[in-house]
Amino acid sequence: MTALVSVERLAINQITTKPWALDNAIRGYARHGVHAVAVWRDKLAELGQPAARRMLGDYGMRVVALTPVRVPVATDGDVQSAMDEILRAFDEATEIGAESLLMLAGPPMTMSPEKMKGVLAERLYALKQRAPSSLQLVIEPLHPIYAATVSPLNTLRDALDLCDQVEGLGVAVDVYNLSWDWDLERQIERAAGRLKGFHVSDWLRETTGDIRYDRGMMGDGCIDIRRIREWMDRAGYRDTIEVEIFSQNNWWRRDPDEVVRTCIERFHIYC
Amino acid sequence: MTALVSVERLAINQITTKPWALDNAIRGYARHGVHAVAVWRDKLAELGQPAARRMLGDYGMRVVALTPVRVPVATDGDVQSAMDEILRAFDEATEIGAESLLMLAGPPMTMSPEKMKGVLAERLYALKQRAPSSLQLVIEPLHPIYAATVSPLNTLRDALDLCDQVEGLGVAVDVYNLSWDWDLERQIERAAGRLKGFHVSDWLRETTGDIRYDRGMMGDGCIDIRRIREWMDRAGYRDTIEVEIFSQNNWWRRDPDEVVRTCIERFHIYC
Fold it and tell me: How close B237 comes to chain A (CA, Å)?
């Protein structure tokens, strides 16, 4: 028998309820008994840090992550301003008491893997030196479909290779990005102690190609989420299970209260 | 300096000139000095084996591969008829003197990787026992985007794990499916002696989501094909470089003679 997880571990990434501004999301999640949120930077900018900080406190809401920033892999282009942008995110995270900052690698360019790895490791190391000690830096590998357009970091193995080089760096495991990988169980085991985020959603089998904005609700697709959650358990991960659903054609069009209710129901059944 | 490859190594997968029936393709490739073809089973069925065999002989055309068959990974469903279908492909390959048979794994189902690996290895082994000794069996990993819908075999590493278990089995490396993988160079090195096909095309960076039928011509996208070809060289691969372009919106709509001419030009520059 599989141990079920307590709903206290449920977090919601606010992109899941995209129609809600941050203040509505905080009130909405709290109304349904959810007290952990991943905050998007653009939504935070709309509300402003002081108001956000106050509301998060009033509603007893943990900010498990601030998201996203992009660590550049290019050696040309305006690297400095991309790095400065990340430093600004450090400040934002501190101001709202975010526990972690979620980082993507990219955008990509034509460059050899060794070169990209080297550049990324160097920049992540530099960022780690400048990050507040209270802020966990987390790198997230994306699905290989994004390799040419969004991020060239596409496996947990490669993300962990970076962690091997940058002490204190953590990884986020997103089932949508990683469930295809036959090596995933082994890499999650390897990630013990560095697992700093677990994102759930589902892969709609007949999705029509828009894999970026057409994610499914847990249970509506073909990912064996519980199995992956058990691998996370075995690797000692005890933190939040964060629902992150990009869904232009379905969930983003619904009443966010219904979305949150569905997240909670499905969480019990599939996570 | 990189050694250039002789155009004698150019093969064309006939899907690249989809509007041509097999007889037109044989005549067309020969007209442009191309003497190696990968034949699709549906196109072969239209022409019939005896006529195909005769024409291939008359035009001095090598059949580097017959394609595709699907090795089932399911344990339920009609496995027997899927396996029988592959035995029929053995006969077709023999009748037209095909040097290899290209096999995909799938369609996928919800099953653990270890289970899929075990089932696949077992079935590939059984097929190898029944295959004519003159016919090279080749397994091709597809891009992870196909994991839930077409094939769950998505990395060269996993394909080679299968080869480790089935003596004599070969792999095909398709740059479109595999170029995202930071582990590719190492796995190609590992594949030495088992590299039995090298497929080229290009990844259109701004492709709109139809990654199945919107491949680019070499040079029109962002894959460093020559770099991968050099890895193949170093691993001892000396056989054909096969252009395989699925292109519903572009190349399939053009005059196939123009397509073949372009393949040859681009082959010189990018392969």
Answer: 21
- Of residues B184, B185, B211, nearest to A145 (C-beta): B211
Q: What is the DSSP string of A18-82?
A: TTS-HHHHHHHHHHTT--EEEEEHHHHHHH-HHHHHHHHHHTT-EEEEEEEEEE---SSS-HHHH
Taking only the tens of pLDDT, chain B with its 271 residues reads: 456 788 899 999 999 999 999 999 999 999 999 999 999 999 999 999 999 999 999 999 999 999 999 999 988 878 999 999 999 999 999 999 999 999 999 888 777 888 899 999 999 999 999 999 999 999 999 999 999 889 999 999 999 999 999 999 999 999 999 999 999 999 999 999 999 999 999 999 766 557 778 899 999 999 999 999 999 999 999 999 999 999 998 999 999 999 999 999 999 999 9
ipTM of the complex: 0.92
Task: Count interface pairs A-B at CB distance under 8 A.
Answer: 78
Q: Which residue of B has its CA nearest to A155?
A: B181
Min Cα distance B78 → chain A (Å) is: 21
Beta bridge partners of B241: B10
Question: pTM for the whole thing?
Answer: 0.94
Closest chain B residue to A204, measured at CA: B148
